[in-house]
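Request: Mind sharing a record?
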Amino acid sequence: MIVLKTTRELSLMKEACVIAAGALKAAGEAVEPGVSTEEINRIAHDFIVKNGAIPTFKGYSGYPAATCISINDEVIHGIPSKKRIIKAGEIVSIDVGATFNGYVGDNAATFAAGDISPEAQRLCDTTRESLYEGIKMAVAGGRIGDIGSTIQRYCEERGFSVVREFTGHGVGKQMHEDPSVPNFGTPGRGVRLLPGMTIAIEPMINMGGAGIRQLPDGWTIKTRDGSLSAHFEHTIAITSNGPVILTKI
């Protein structure tokens, strides 16, 4: 069931989203060679708690941390660890959520650890740009397929692949609500977008093939062919005046 939010509820969601965005910014600024993913997780966790919110991910279906930190060929759901030390030239995807006053903010971005290859930079740039292209299509009266098809076309025209098994989603009082928001699709198809809908758009884009595999830890998702992957996400609201990025600070 899709839950439409009132103006007051959107205001409450905005507060949660600003905290989530602040946590992502703080975590991203800590990405550099020699830093452990556990230290980055701690920074995000402490930011969320200091601002009176709850780390949404921690404990979600048994997940042990406040963030997902995925490096290089890890697509999503990488578990932070003291043993995982970031190396120069790696790309680091951080996904973080915050719950405040009963509402969730969810966002993600991929960061460079020092200088990265031109190919890795192009992947990150394309993934980030595809997110904003998708957001442009999140207009009242449109369809979910308008968002996904735009992201898919933008990335595939540039030689990259779209992960199919994981998608964006509705977000509100729960981190995952209806509707599903794929990063692929057909224009004019799918759920109609209505004012008051709040969704997380999150392209997960691979440099090589679209295939993925799950590690034995039950969480970490990697590219099947070992190619790099990037991940960007915003929580947005559909309004009669166009899309509003709630996780923008």
Remarks:
- The first helix runs from residue 7 to 29.
